[in-house]
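Example (one chain per record):
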Amino acid sequence: MNGVRDLNLAQDAGKAGGGTGLPPVSRWVPVGCLSLVLAVTFLTYLDTLWFQFVHDDEYQILGNAFLRSWRFLPRYFSADVWAFRHPDIPGNFYRPLFLLWLRFNYVLFGTNPWGWHLTTVLAHLGATLCVFFLARRLLADWVAALYASLIFGLHPIHIEGAAWVSGVPEPLLAVLIIPSYLCFLRSQEKTVRSGAWLIASLGLYSLAMLMKETAVILPALIFASCWVGWKSATHGWFENWPRRLKDSFWSAAPYLGLTAPYFVARYLVLKGFQHPSVNLPFVTTISTWPSLLWLYLRHVFWPVGLHPFYDLTYVVHPGLRNAVLPAVPVALAILLLAWWAKRSVQVALASLWLVLPILPTLNVQIFGNGFFAHDRYLYLPSAGISILAALALRRLKTGKSRLLGQPALQVALLLVIACALGQSTAAQSGYYATHATYYANSYAVAPDNDAAKTNLAGLLGEQGHYAEAVDIYLEVLKRNPDPGFVVYDLGYAYYQMGKLEEAEYYLTQAAESMPFPAAAYFCLGLTQFKMGHLEDAVRNLRRAVAISRYTDNYHFALGMVLKTQGNLPGALQEFQAELALNPRHSEARKQSTEIEEALRPRLTPGSTLPDSSRAPDSRKP
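Predicted structure:
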């Protein structure tokens, strides 16, 4: 007997209330109700269509040369997501399908933010629809599925994935991995063509892995689902475990077979499975888990004060306040969930969607101190949370009064929850509207987070308040003497202020200490150019180009310095390289044309100039 074949979860689109005893309803009633849920969700996020690009959007979209031409398509499958800025530095994000999504958006909308935000919201609606079908399949109750999809669609925990363009991998992953799981369940039924459904499931799983690496939890989900559902009506979880283990393993085996070549490709492209930002002792890692999970638990049940950054750091010295106290509510929540799951196979299956997708977030060393806690990591786990909440609501049947054909207490409580979630989402999504709202509110919520502080300082610099920005950078450096990007930000602020000697000092330090020093070399070259140190400027700008040859304006800046030196052929080559990355760079085209005119008398008969519309062969990716 194979895996979940004995799970008698009926497809009940034509039934009312999942066995509540109510009269049958038209098949169009669930469709109409689901359409209403999707419409309410869309209206909740309607304001985001007028939001701007913020934070990573500026780099991943506006400054990403890989999105401007189909000739970069092979790079999507052979490099890290951030290879356009750091092409020779291994990363952690092998997401070719996500880059393809960005490319299609660029073709459709260019650099107009509204279109990007529209497709991001539509991706969230697609995920909400998938949660409906997942809940209906697991709970055999279309009303409960509506409850789950409404809670999922409106929950503020999804703001980062639905209101921020760079957060879209989360809903896109859900749109692929949930249907893959459902196709697997369908393939286990005796009355269908199981082979076709299994192929569809495996195909969707392959796409999910190429969208976001956390898709690799699916084999574990399938294994655990088969284990929990194996002859669940007559056996406990650990009875007849050898046979159960065998059936569960063979159900997951095709997915493990696909995961293996994915890991090989990821290893070859990224030059390793992962590259942690910091190597932590295991004790520090596990000591950090309670505070991280407690943060997520609070945000699920009290989603207020949600932001991109939080004052959460590694627990190096675990104690009562930073480890023991957060562990108590987390442990109680785990015990309560286990107790409930033991009494219901539906709860157990929904719990798998909560527990397994959250496990990758516990790899706290991958992002670095202050960067490992983000609400978007709860996007997929919240599918399980929404289903559990819906199931709990459906079990509230006190009284005989009815509202909209359902127990009045259920509907009233659902409407209260939906209104609270929707209002909270609409109010807090505005933080992602502009740079000013994004950085100012992040600092208000996490004033001790270095990233929030430096981002606020960057915003002050954009507004011309350089002295205030410098004060913040110096404060951060005083508390955290580790150089890194803060030294670069400080040097750049001095450059903007015209304090070139101070800028040169800090930018030189940054270039020697940053793991990705291209920007530091670039700004150092600009600083030295302004100081009249042309040889030094050329040397450092060439270093920046060598490290990050696909970044906007690097070739242009080098071309301007070479032109000042009188090296017109070299300058022309750099201007052409800039135009190959960004054909809309009008100043690079102007400079290229001027140099071509200046060089024309020097041409020998029969010679030709390089085509200024593209870079020389040596510059092609």
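Caption: The mean pLDDT is 87.
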